[in-house]
Recover the amino acids of this structure.
């Protein structure tokens, strides 16, 4: 009897194994991870949208700008300021086109002789120079990187949003990229100016008869801004948060007497005239400056568009309690959210570390420019995709995504809507309505 039972067990085991093998073999096998791909525990809205994604690179020039790095004794010379843009958009692919492209960036630093510039490449899920999908008009999103950074630093998010029906434009801010990082004064002065210039450039490209591939498919009157670190500093100012007199004094001292930053300070007539009604929502990842006195209470009151802040509770660059959380508290006239990664530091926005940095300690500075010590960066990316999709879906597309933001404050207390069971841990989401 025992012998029969043994044979029976083997037959059942063989049949079960064969069945499992057949089921697995029927599924497509994917062995290559690309930044932004949904992990098994990715929240619901992290998955790609209905559109194929195209990507193009264009160059624009903002003429007659202040060359602040050559300012001397209060005299500000002018220059033509070139900006390189990466644009992701809903696309129509030919049968031969694949939704895979290669992006280029660099490691190292032009300000550190011990860290030479080393180019690297990585893959993205977009088709280079594909034809745009002309089936609709799409809201515009403008993305501003950190200092230093690049236009492809958040490609996991820019591609994902384009797949959901947005035109996404990321800026290489001159004198602030991995490749050409220069004096900090340029970043302080030019972030907001670059963003507003690009908004106007894309709006013009979207007009009928513009000869741009964006003609008649981009709705610049329905624009969101996304900024990370110094990009967050820039988008908050564009949204209405005037800089403080403290920044004005610091900038004057830094530049040997220039008052150029005054045009972006609270109460300045030029600044007030620049507040653009086309901007409908803002996402600010770890925005820099609050803990340095860059804003005061009056300046923060100037923001009246919906805000979604993202921060690490241990942010040692932009600060948390006296940084991003203080900005969340102080933007009293905006409907606003604050998503916090508990125990994360500053890197709550970028792609995972480049492969080149993974196994070589000489690239440790580059590795930690991307990586979070207490979090899997791929996991952070998926969570960001989910929440940014929900937030912008509500305010730019009027989608019924409120259930994804109407959540218990602490993710550890009850599983959050949109998250797989047991996966919504280590997070906090605060919400305050305008006037609260």
């Amino acid at each position: 009897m025992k012998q029969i039972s043994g044979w029976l067990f083997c037959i059942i085991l063989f049949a079960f194994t064969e069945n499992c093998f057949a089921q697995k073999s029927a599924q497509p096998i994917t062995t290559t991870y690309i930044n932004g791909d949904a992990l098994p525990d990715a929240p619901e809205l992290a998955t790609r949208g209905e559109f194929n994604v195209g990507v193009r690179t264009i160059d624009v020039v903002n003429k007659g700008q202040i060359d602040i790095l050559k300012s001397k004794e209060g005299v500000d010379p002018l220059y033509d300021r070139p900006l390189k843009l990466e644009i992701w958009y809903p696309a129509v692919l030919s049968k031969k086109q694949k939704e895979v492209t290669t992006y280029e960036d660099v490691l190292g630093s032009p300000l550190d002789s011990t860290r030479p510039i080393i180019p690297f490449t990585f893959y993205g899920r977009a088709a280079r120079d594909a034809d745009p999908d002309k089936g609709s008009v799409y809201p515009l999103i403008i993305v501003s990187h950190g200092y230093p950074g690049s236009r492809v630093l958040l490609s996991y998010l820019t591609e994902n949003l384009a797949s959901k029906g947005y035109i996404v434009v990321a800026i290489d801010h001159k004198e602030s990229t991995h490749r050409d990082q220069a004096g900090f004064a340029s970043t302080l002065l030019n972030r907001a100016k670059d963003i507003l210039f690009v908004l106007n450039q894309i709006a013009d490209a979207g007009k009928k008869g513009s000869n741009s591939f964006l003609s008649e498919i981009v709705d610049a009157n329905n624009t969101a801004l996304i900024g990370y670190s110094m990009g967050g500093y820039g988008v908050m100012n564009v949204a209405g948060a005037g800089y403080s007199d403290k920044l004005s004094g610091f900038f004057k001292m830094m530049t040997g007497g220039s008052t150029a930053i005054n045009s972006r300070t609270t109460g300045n007539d030029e600044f007030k005239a620049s507040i653009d009604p086309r901007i409908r929502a803002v996402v600010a990842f770890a925005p820099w400056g609050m803990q340095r006195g860059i804003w005061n209470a009056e300046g923060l009151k100037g923001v009246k568009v919906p805000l979604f802040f993202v921060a690490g509770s241990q942010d040692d660059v932009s600060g948390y309690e006296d940084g991003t959380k203080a900005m969340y508290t102080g933007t009293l006239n905006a409907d606003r959210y604050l998503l916090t990664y508990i125990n994360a530091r500053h890197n709550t926005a970028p792609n995972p570390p480049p492969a080149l940095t993974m196994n070589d300690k000489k690239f440790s500075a580059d590795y930690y420019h991307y990586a979070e010590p207490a979090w899997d960066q791929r996991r952070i990316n998926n969570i960001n995709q989910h929440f940014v999709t929900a937030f912008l879906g509500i305010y730019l597309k009027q989608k019924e995504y409120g259930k994804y933001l109407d959540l218990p404050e602490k993710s550890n207390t009850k599983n959050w809507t949109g998250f797989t069971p047991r996966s919504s841990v280590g997070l906090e989401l605060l919400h305050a309505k305008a006037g609260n």
Observations:
- Residues 2-25 form the longest helix (24 residues).
- Residues 39-432 form a domain with the Rossmann fold fold (CATH 3.40.50.1820).
- The first strand starts at residue 52 and ends at 66.
- The radius of gyration is 23 Å.
